[in-house]
UniProtKB/TrEMBL annotation:
InterPro entries: LapA_dom (IPR010445). Signal peptide: none annotated. Keywords: Cell membrane, Membrane, Transmembrane, Transmembrane helix. GO terms for cellular component: plasma membrane. This is Lipopolysaccharide assembly protein A domain-containing protein. Residues 23-80 form the Lipopolysaccharide assembly protein A domain. Residues 89-109 are annotated as: Disordered. It comes from Eikenella corrodens. The chain crosses the membrane at residues 39-65. It comes from the Bacteria.
Length: 109
């Protein structure tokens, strides 16, 4: 599976390199009204890809923090339950509680 994943990644990298090689034409980019700059198309594509990736990471940052908080809370809960279970296993059982109750009335059929 790792080999398959590596092959797919290498193929995608090759496709992107070919696209970069063929998209070197200059394009006009208007970033403000009246302001225009000519840049290679691949540079603009790369810049907007990076900007989109940064916005994507920032948009997931809040969810990441909430998941980390929930993960820590659940780990603490598991530790607490394990400690309680360990304490219950170590407490001695009273002798009277271990013997069956014989005062109960017999069940009639």
């Amino acid at each position: 599976m790792k080999l398959f994943s590596l092959i797919i990644k290498l193929l995608l990298l090759a496709v992107f390199i070919v696209l970069a090689a063929f998209n070197t034409h200059l394009v006009s980019f208007s970033y403000l009204p009246g302001s225009e700059i000519s840049l290679p198309l691949i540079l603009l594509l790369l810049a907007f890809f990076v900007i989109g990736a940064v916005f994507g990471v920032f948009s997931m940052f809040g969810r990441l923090l909430s998941l980390r908080h929930e993960n820590n809370r659940l780990r603490n809960e598991v530790r607490k339950n394990a400690r309680i279970a360990q304490e219950q296993l170590q407490t001695p059982v009273p002798v009277d509680a271990a013997q069956p109750v014989s005062d109960a009335a017999p069940v009639k059929e």
